Amino acid sequence: MRKNSQIFSALEDNYSLLMPPRRYVSPEEDNGRWEGFSFRESDIVVSARSKHGTTWIQTILLLLVHQQPNLPAPLAQLSPWLDHLVEPLDAVVARLEVQDHRRVIKTHTPLDGVPLEDEVTYIVVARHPLDAAVSLYYQSANIDRERLHQLVGIPTPERDRTPRPPVDQWLRSWIDAVDDPAESLDSLSGVMWHLSDAWKRRREPNILLVHYDELLGNLSAQMRRLADRLAIEVPSRSWNDLVEAATFRHMRARADRLVPDPSGILRDKKAFFRQGRSGAARGLLGDDYFSRYLDRASTLAPIDLLAWLHNDDG
Predict the structure, then answer these.
(1) Which residue, among 129, 96, 125, 121, has the nearest Cα to 110 in the 3D structure?
(2) Which partner from 125, 146, 201, 297 sits 20 to 30 angstroms from 194, CA to CA?
(3) Which residues are part of the catalytic machinery?
């Protein structure tokens, strides 16, 4: 019976990989904007949940593509967020169409909601969910909600006007919340949904998973891995300068050009790069609630994904 169950599970996974793109819509994003998008064979799509290292990977990729430590334009101009509703789709597509270099396109949509083309490379960035959640908590406080909702044409919900609880209390509520992952992609279930879908596809030749902690641990090696996978040759004389330009310290110093905020919804651009560390979230919970998190996570994602995601810290 167990063998039959495993066979059925494998067939179910393979079937899900062949399904048409799933629709994800929120007040701020709509992956329907990918419909009819004209890809180029060399395109790179970065897919990650909020505060998982999206901007970091975009910066690394653009440094590799342009092979100069000072990018020729702001990051949001070079690598736009296609499904973000704060900017008209026509403007985003027009900006991409005139680019004569290898394009890097951002999305927070899981891969099952993005058109998958064999000649396009898809990079999914993962981070320990607790660390990402704490970063999300502070990032939310840095967003001008009135400005954001004005740009997308909706009134500001009352919940966005209500003061939030302290970060430790908020994090416990985030762990306990039972959300529909497809409707609440920044919830714990939504994060695991996004990563589990990518994990199923990790052996596809054009899909690559990158772990935030591996970037922290050895940035040069991870940049070399990306360059090799993308068949980008970087002259040895340029390498150290590119790696230095991708460090957190350098990115924070260049926040005016690297923070993805073309519409001015952030109160403080430098606060976007808050700390860039890992492991602090566990200290906010204590052992009992960290165990509670691990129990919840075990119901939301496969064990091999969790071992990689957590670096076996459970």
Answers:
(1) 125
(2) 146
(3) 108
**For the chain, which residues make up each domain, given as ranges?**
21-310
Summarised one tens digit per residue, pLDDT across range 109-126 is 999 999 999 999 999 999
pLDDT digits (tens, 9 = 90+) for 247-265: 988 988 888 887 766 566 5
Is the domain defined by 21-310 classed in CATH 3.40.50.300? yes
Beta strand extents in the chain (DSSP E only): 44-47, 104-107, 121-126, 207-211
Looking at per-residue pLDDT, the higher value among 210 and 183 belongs to 210
> Distance between CA atoms of 119 and 116, rounded to whole angstroms?
9
What is the Cα–Cα distance from 194 to 205, expressed in whole angstroms? 19
What DSSP element (H or E) covers 87? none
Q: Across 177-250, where does the E strand assignment appear?
A: 207-211
Distance CA 126, CA 135 (A): 14
Q: Which residue has the tokens 């050895």?
A: 218
Residues 197, 88, 17, CA angle at the centre, nearest 5°? 15
Calpha distance 156→149 (Å, rounded):
6
